[in-house]
Amino acid sequence: MKKLKFIAPVIILLLATLIAAGCSSGSKDKKGEAQYPTKPVNYVIAFDAGGQSDIEARRQQPLLEKSLGQPITVVYKPGGGGAVAWAELVNQKNDGYYMAGFNIPHIILQPLERKDAGYKTEQINPVAIFQKTIIGLAVPKDSPYNTLEEFIKAAKEKPGSITVGGSGTNTGPHLFTLLLEKEAGIKLQYVPFTGAAPATQALLGGHTKAMAGNSDDLVKHTDKIKILGMASDQRFKALPDITTFKEKGLNISVSVDRGVAVPPGTDPAIVKKLEDAFMKISNDEGIKAQMLKEGFEPVAMGSAESKKYIEDKAKVFTELFKSVAPPAKK
Question: Which pTM does this prediction carry?
Answer without folding.
Answer: 0.79
